[in-house]
Amino acid sequence: MKYSIKSAGLTQIVVRISYVLLAVSVILFPVLMQQEDGDTFYFVMIAEHGKYLIFPFYAVVPAGYAVLACLDKLLSNIKHDIVFDRRNVVILNTITLCCLYAALVGLVGYIVIALCYNSIETVILLSLGEAFMALVVRVVRDIMNKAIEIKEDNDLVV
């Protein structure tokens, strides 16, 4: 169990660093998208259409912070030995919904950009990744739900 607590603590540090990185990206995103020369590093691979990606990016930032907050709480629960608990299922469900929201925003953004400004494959790939992540978290949530049911049955037997 000590390994699990150390691992959760380390992961929680990474999550908290991600809060800062997301805030920095919120500030730097418009600056990076305005660069026009070919020698500049771009946050998005297709720089000529980068300014159109600002709106979908800012639309999913709140979901990103919500996911980070949920991960932080989930890891805190694990560190306090609150593992098979209905609260964790709610947290996992929230993460799933945030991922689905981000996937939907990405898909709508892709469609709008593709129709108006030709195709940007990066946006659809991100959207598919977000949808896949939602699927993975949903499977983990279902496993957690089943484990809680087994734990509750065992608690009743004893």
Structural features:
158 residues, mainly alpha, 84% helix
Question: What report would you give on this structure?
Answer:
The chain has 158 residues and is mostly helical. It has 4 helices and no strands. It has helices at residues 2-34, 50-79, 86-117, 121-157. Helix 2 packs antiparallel against helix 3. The chain is elongated, with a radius of gyration of 19 Å.
Shape: elongated
What is the helix tally?
4
Distance between the termini: 23 Å
Which stretches are poorly predicted, pLDDT < 50 over at least 5 residues? Answer: 39-47
Rg from Cα:
19 Å
> What would the average pLDDT be, to the nearest integer?
82
**Percentage of β-strand residues:** under 5%
- Structural class by sheet pairing and helices: mainly alpha
- Kindly state the number of beta strands: 0
Helix share of residues? over 70%
N to C succession of SSEs: HHHH
Q: Can you summarize the main beta sheet? A: none
Per-chain topology:
Blueprint: H1 2-34, H2 50-79, H3 86-117, H4 121-157
Helix pairs in contact: 1-2, 2-3, 3-4
What would a concise description of this structure say?
Helix content is 84%, strand content 0%. It is mainly alpha-helical. The longest helix is centred in the C-terminal third of the chain and has 37 residues, at 121-157.
